[in-house]
Design a protein that fits this description.
Elements (H helix, E strand, L loop, with lengths): L3 E3 L5 H7 L25 E5 L5 H12 L18 E5 L5 E7 L7 E7 L6 H13 L17 H4 L12 E5 L27 H9 L3 H12 L9 H34 L2 E7 L2 E6 L8 E5 L7 E7 L5 E5 L1 H4 L5 E4 L18 E5 L11 E5 L2 E5 L4 E2 L4 E3 L3 E8 L5 H4 L10 H34 L19 H15 L7 H18 L14 E2 L11 E6 L6 E12 L2 E3 L5 H18 L3 H19 L23 H13 L4 E4 L6 E4 L3 H12 L2 E6 L3 E7 L6 E12 L7 E7 L5 E7 L1 H5 L10 H13 L3 E10 L1 H16 L5 H12 L4 E12 L3 H10 L3 E5 L4 H10 L8 E5 L3 H6 L2 H21 L7 E6 H7 L5 H9 L3 E5 L3 H15 L2 E6 L5 H6 L2 E5 L6 H5 L2 E3 L4 H41 L10 H11 L1 H10 L5 H6 L15 H26 L13 H23 L5 H22 L3 H4 L5 H6 L3 H28 L3 H10 L2 H4 L1 H10 ...
Parallel strand pairs: 20-32, 20-36, 32-35, 33-34, 34-35, 36-37, 37-38
Antiparallel strand pairs: 1-3, 2-5, 3-4, 4-5, 6-13, 7-8, 7-9, 9-18, 10-16, 10-18, 11-12, 11-17, 13-14, 14-15, 19-38, 21-22, 21-31, 23-24, 25-26, 26-27, 27-28, 28-29, 29-30, 30-31
Length: 1326
């Protein structure tokens, strides 16, 4: 078999144009190869194609090479053949042939021979004939570029050395890389925070980052001293329990991440094990140098050098959604020298060496050399298959592993799993500092008082002998220092250790409710929401900026063909979502203002009819409804010839590939962009079905308007001028069956209108008017035009174009751009299309609700700028009339000038834009900042990033396009650190992992493209629309619950702990506790813990429906209204007041007066128990006043806490005096029979809560918060009785925003009002 390597081919027409340059009489001089000692030839000749029978060809092949030659090229029916074919005989001998096939006449082959010896002229001629009769196997998707030089013949190996280029890979020798000095990492990946070795030290470090835990550790150590008022177990056991519980939770969450990592590591791939045998191995067992075989629709396990594929021309199609967010397929091409490695057996003796760059995070560059058979070939990104991209439309590929595991580019773009703490938790540390300062202060006062008391009094006669010299009157200073330790432990209840246990428990239960929320369950995939970490629940309610990926997160990459304008006539009766929403809002307003329903009825009727039309239409990508174009009726239109050309452009101007659906038998289209797919579906429905594509032709089945029978027409594809972000248009040059050459063009309206001829502007004004209406309706538009070309003009231009295409100098792109611009002139306008970008379900509504909640939304995408802008319009981040600020880097400047010059240019753009925003006076004006990845590289540097951030935050929306995963993370860090506010990042692919981990909160979308984003996230949801409920409902609830819970915890502990200080001061700073040890132990564990847990789990200021209807309520979180220092100190002050009332009222009541009926006074146990009872009643009454939402659970737990206190008091008092001590039967015999005890409880509880009751009454009456108003409306059922008022309140309860669906609808309403005003204005007669 002769190995074959097929080159990129131009079209036959282009090839024919080159045939004029060759002469049949040209023969170079034959030279002798002196070194080899035999005759070698470098010969050029022109031979005429001659017919040979198959038997003669087979005999020739056996004579020359002793084997059959596989057919490689076969002329088409009309004699056309591909342009360039390279045939390799062996390592030392090769020839290149350029097959030239004119439209009629014999075919010719221009042949270059290189070191072919021992061939006679007849044998050589026969061999060329043989190459013409062989068959070329092609893939289904071709490249439509023109002729270009061979890579191996034009490109020199890369010359690199030094640091950054030390990678050395021996192909098919994986064991070589396990040894030093290479020792490359395995393909095992881990996104976990801990492993078996690091768990204990890192988890302990995380726990003791909390200031309170450090204090508890110190207190536990001090409890081991003899001066401790409590036993060591009572201090150590709670600390161990709290730390152990938190570490257990961390371990469980880390284990879940580990299991998801293992799902990826255990994926299987075919790996060459030797002797041409491929066996399945887990990804984690793949090593550098391994040859792997990846099958269709599988992910690549590592970064691979592409060797060959199931297509003999060495191409494959890759989907890189996980890397750059793009869903259009990328064409990868292997080196031609490796094309013969096309089956398993060919790798039996395969050896090669790769020298390339070191691991780095850059997804779009690669530099390396491939050494094979003593030849060196340069490598570039087109031969690299990156980990986590997916093989599509290709049966299989072979590749060799270059970068594995954490060396792969996608993992290089990831960051280590961060340790995230919520804003409230960080602020708790500051509160702990305040309380610790208070603790030290009162302990110092106590110790100073004890030292003074000790120095002025003789030893107390009633105290036992002090062997440890703790209260020696002769050494009062020492006694004071020792007493300080006692006081620090005694007053330790000011800093509640049970707070952290309660918070952990509450957060776990909150996460459980998030996981079980049926409204965030995706029925299509069976995926619920998941709180992967419960540490950040309350942070969900404090988000200021959302940074979102685009593809797979916002979009489902589906376009719907909705309307079109052809020849100045509008077609399409269906309304866009923006039009429907605007009409609905207008109808409601008209109904509210007039109550007549005249205009409203018309608008509502239009909505119903349009909605019914769209519901009837079930064709994916086609929501068009207009009988004038359907079923061949277009031929009856006045401009039928214009309509015909327009519909043909729909079917011909694209790069899509048709594929037969195995299930339905119909055609589906693999298009580079979703709008191309929508155009082809529309063309099919109009009767122009694109059905087949070859290297040189496009076939369309055109339905005859009269007979409705399909007629297959062939259009010769001569040239294709690709779409680029700079050109903003694409064109195809075709030749129809009549021989007419046509240029068909589609592109942005501004670009197309500038290229129209004077005679081609007949429909310009009408089309512009229609385009404006489409834009206002939120539709994506493209203008269509064409031009007839004369043959002489085309061939002259094509000659120049081919020369530019095959040139290898640095001006190649500029030359191609100039020539493309030259031919795309003097166009004739046909019309325009309007397609609706189909976002994921509920995305516009979700973005609108988040915008109304006051959140800023940034989009970070790997897509090109035009695609990102179109998506911005689709999801209402951009709208018609919004001023776009595009910050870009001039390509020529960045390549020729210094970095300093580029940065100065970017700084000037940013400065000018910032000045423009500041000087804007229109209150409805909105700005959108759009920046590409190349410019962002400079904008994120230290000397520019603050100016860039200031501009970005002053704009209504920000879109960053063509950004790498690393840049996504850097932008997220800039927003997080630069604004100091909470950021949330959301994405669905491996390219989003960096920003998900960098943001304060990371949300992963568990889509169909892998689980990398989910594994790195803090929360996971199935669709973007669930983010609305996650933030606006659960975030709002969790924030208020945790904030109120913490404030209440500090309140009750201050109210309880300070009574100990007052009593100690009252008793001469003796260190005596007024409470029994068991009272103090049960206070936080049982008697007050359950109500506060119910507050943290079940509290709702408003229902979930109200949260969604009044999104402005969410701003209570970002503004931190419930956990600012004003509120914190307010609760602390409330605790201080309560402690004073509890202590002094009880002292006044029980001091120096009869307590029992027989005249006995109260002792310390009675006073302590009565005081403790008052604390229990007061704090439980306080939490009842704090709660807004009651269920039987809250009622039960509050009553349970109080009843439990009495049950304990009875049971504890019934124990033996040896166990119960001074409280033996204290309740049954002393307290219960005494009326003063019950009266004191009532008096103290009322007095403690009266100020809070007065405060909230005043606030609700004169300065109500938003939720107070809503609660009152709901309580009095005004939402049912007065719907007009309810709608008015809802319209006011949203943040003023310039983005989102509502902002676009408002703009549409202003436009409609202006139109109505113009219509209703009376005409002034002159």
């Amino acid at each position: 078999m002769i190995p074959v390597a097929n080159r990129d081919s131009g079209r036959d027409q282009e090839a024919r144009s080159n045939s004029r340059s060759f002469s049949s009489n040209s023969r170079p001089q034959i030279e002798a190869d002196q070194d080899s000692g035999r005759n070698s030839y470098a010969d050029c000749c022109l031979v005429e194609f001659s017919e040979k029978s198959d038997e003669e060809l087979d005999e020739l092949s056996r004579k020359l090479y002793g084997a059959d030659i596989a057919p490689i090229v076969e002329p088409t029916v009309d004699g056309d053949v591909p342009a360039i074919v390279e045939l390799t005989v062996d390592d030392a001998s090769s020839w290149h042939s350029l097959i030239l096939s004119p439209s009629n006449g014999p075919a010719f082959i221009f042949v270059i021979l290189d070191e072919i010896s021992c061939l006679s002229g007849v044998e050589f001629s026969n061999l060329l004939t043989l190459s013409m009769r062989a068959r070329l196997k092609r893939s289904s998707l071709y490249t439509f570029g023109c002729i270009r030089p061979s890579r191996e013949s034009t490109d020199e190996p890369h010359q690199f050395q030094g640091p950054g280029f030390s990678r050395h890979v021996c192909c098919n020798e994986p064991g070589f890389h396990r040894k030093k000095p290479l020792k490359y990492p395995s393909n095992y990946i881990s996104t976990t925070k801990y492993n078996v070795i690091t768990f204990l030290p890192k988890a302990l470090f995380e726990q003791f980052r909390r200031v309170a835990n450090l204090y508890f550790l110190l207190a536990a150590a001090l409890s081991l001293t003899p001066v401790s008022p409590f036993s060591p177990y009572s201090m150590i056991a709670p600390l161990v329990f709290v730390i152990g519980l938190s570490m257990t939770k961390e371990a469980v969450e880390n284990w879940q991440r580990f299991m998801q990592d293992m799902k990826v590591n255990m994926r299987k791939v075919f790996v060459h094990s030797g002797n041409g045998i491929f066996v399945k191995k887990p990804w984690m067992k793949v090593e550098v140098g391994d040859v792997v075989k990846v099958e269709k629709d599988r992910f690549f396990p590592a970064d691979l050098l592409f060797l060959s594929s199931s297509y003999e021309d060495g191409i494959c199609y890759v989907e890189t959604m996980n890397l750059d967010g793009e869903t259009n397929l990328k064409v990868k091409r292997s080196l031609e020298v490796t094309l013969p490695l096309d089956d398993d057996q060919s790798f039996q003796d395969f050896k090669a060496t790769i020298k390339c760059e070191d691991p780095n995070p850059n997804l779009y560059t690669f530099v390396g050399n491939f050494e094979y058979h003593r030849q060196i070939y340069p490598l570039d990104p087109t031969q690299i298959l990156l980990r986590d991209s997916k093989l599509r439309n290709t049966s299989h590929v072979y590749g060799v592993v270059i970068f594995s595991g954490h060396d792969s580019k996608v993992m290089q773009n990831s960051t280590k799993s961060p340790s995230k703490r919520s804003t409230i938790e960080k602020q708790m540390d500051k509160i702990i500092y305040v309380l610790f300062t208070l603790l030290v202060l009162i302990s110092s006062i106590s110790s100073i008082g004890f030292a003074i008391k000790t120095s002025k009094q003789t030893p107390f006669w009633y105290l036992p002998q002090d062997d440890k010299n703790l209260y020696n009157p002769t050494r009062p200073l020492t006694s004071g220092w020792i007493h300080l330790i006692t006081a620090l432990i005694l007053y330790g209840y000011l800093i509640p250790i049970s707070l952290y246990v309660s918070i952990e428990l509450v957060k776990v239960l909150q996460a459980l409710f998030i996981n079980q929320d049926i409204n965030m369950y995706d029925e299509d995939t069976g995926t619920p929401a998941q709180a992967r970490t419960s540490n950040l629940n309350e942070e969900l309610g404090m988000v200021d900026t959302v940074l979102s990926d685009k593809t797979g997160t916002l979009t489902c990459n589906q376009m719907d063909f909705l309307k079109c304008s052809i020849g100045g006539t509008q077609y399409g009766l269906c309304s866009s979502e923006v039009e429907l929403a605007a009409a609905t809002q207008m109808a409601m307003e008209v109904d509210d203002m007039s109550r007549t329903g005249a205009h409203g009825s018309e608008i509502e009727l239009e909505i119903v009819e349009s909605g019914e039309r769209r519901s009837r239409n079930r064709i994916k990508g086609f929501s068009f409804e207009d009988s004038r174009l359907m079923n061949g009726n277009w031929c009856r239109e006045a401009n039928a010839d214009v309509v015909l050309m327009f519909l043909r452009i729909l079917a011909l101007c694209h790069t899509a590939i048709p594929e037969v659906n195995e299930l339905t038998g119909g055609l589906t289209y693999e298009a580079e962009s979703p709008d191309e797919g929508a155009f082809l579906v529309a063309a099919r429905e109009f009767g122009f079905e694109y059905c087949k594509r070859t290297q040189s032709s496009i076939f369309v089945r055109e339905k005859d308007p009269m007979s409705h029978e399909p007629i297959e027409r062939e259009y010769k594809l001569l040239n294709l001028l690709d779409f680029t972000s700079k050109r903003k248009r694409m064109s195809v040059i075709i030749q129809d069956e009549s021989g007419q050459i046509l240029l068909l063009c589609k592109g942005a309206d501004s670009i197309i209108f500038d290229r129209l001829s004077k005679t081609g502007r007949s429909f310009e004004e009408a089309t512009k008017r229609h385009l404006k209406e489409y834009a206002e309706s939120g539709l994506r538009t493209l203008a269509f035009a064409y031009r007839k070309l004369e043959s002489s003009e085309y061939f002259t231009w094509n000659d120049e174009f081919l020369k530019a295409k095959t040139s290898i100098n640095g001006d190649r792109d500029a030359m191609l751009e100039r020539l493309s611009d030259m031919i795309e002139r003097e166009l004739t306008l046909l019309g325009a299309t309007a397609v609706e970008d189909k976002l994921q379900q509920g995305v516009p509504q979700c973005i609108d609700k988040l915008a109304q909640a006051g959140l800023k939304i940034w989009v970070l995408t790997g897509d090109k700028m035009e695609t990102a802008i179109n998506i911005g319009f689709a999801c209402s981040l951009l709208r018609h009339g919004m001023k776009q600020i595009c910050i870009t880097t001039n390509v020529d400047m960045s390549s020729h000038n210094s970095t300093k010059g580029v940065k100065e240019n970017i700084l000037m753009q940013i400065t000018n834009a910032s000045q423009m925003v500041k000087l804007e006076k229109d209150p409805h004006a909105a700005f959108a900042l759009i920046i590409d990845g190349k410019t962002l590289t400079y904008a994120l540097e230290d000397d520019l990033k603050l100016q860039f951030l200031n501009l970005a935050v002053s704009c209504a929306s920000v879109i960053c396009c063509r950004v790498s995963p690393k840049q996504k993370a850097l932008v997220t860090r800039l927003v997080k650190e630069g604004t100091g506010k909470t950021t949330l990042a959301i994405g669905d692919g491996a390219n989003d992992v960096g920003m998900i981990q960098e943001a304060d909160i990371g949300v992963g979308i568990s889509g169909v493209e892998g689980m990398q984003a989910v594994m790195a996230s803090d929360f996971s949801i199935a669709q973007f629309r669930f983010l609305e409920r996650l933030l606006v409902v659960h975030g709002h609830w969790c924030y208020k619950r945790i904030a109120q819970m913490i404030c209440y915890f500090f309140y009750k502990n201050i109210a309880f702990g300070l009574t100990l200080f007052y009593f100690e001061a009252f008793t001469g700073f003796s260190g005596q506790s007024v409470y029994d040890d068991w009272y103090m132990l049960l206070f936080n564990v049982v008697l007050t813990s359950l109500p506060v847990i119910s507050l943290g789990v079940f509290e709702q200021d408003v229902s979930s429906e109200i949260c969604l209807q009044f999104p402005a309520l969410y701003q209570q979180g970002p503004r931190n209204l419930f956990f600012d220092w004003y509120r914190i100190f307010g609760w602390m002050g409330n605790g201080l007041y309560c402690s004073l009332i509890v202590f002094f009222l009880n002292i006044i009541i029980f001091y120096d007066q009869a307590f029992r009926s027989n005249g006995q006074t109260a002792d310390m146990a009675v006073v302590g128990t009565a005081m403790f009872t008052c604390v229990i009643y007061s704090v439980n009454s306080q939490i009842a006043l704090t709660m807004s939402h009651f269920t039987w659970i809250q009622h039960f737990l509050i009553m349970f806490s109080i009843i439990t206190w009495y049950i304990f008091l009875v049971l504890y008092g019934m124990l033996s005096p040896d166990l119960s001590g001074n409280v033996y039967k204290i309740f049954l015999e002393a307290l219960a029979p005494a009326p003063i005890y019950w009266l004191s409880i009532l008096l103290v509880a009322v007095a403690c809560n009266l100020p809070y009751l007065a405060h909230i009454s005043f606030q609700r009456s004169f300065n109500p918060m938003d939720h107070h108003v809503i609660q009152e409306i709901k309580y009095y059922k005004k939402d049912v009785e007065d719907r007009h008022m309810w709608r008015r309140e809802k319209s006011k309860a949203r943040q003023e925003t310039k983005i989102g669906f509502s902002a676009r609808v408002d703009a549409k309403i202003r436009h409609l009002r202006q139109k109505l005003h113009k219509k209703s204005s009376p005409r002034v007669s002159m």
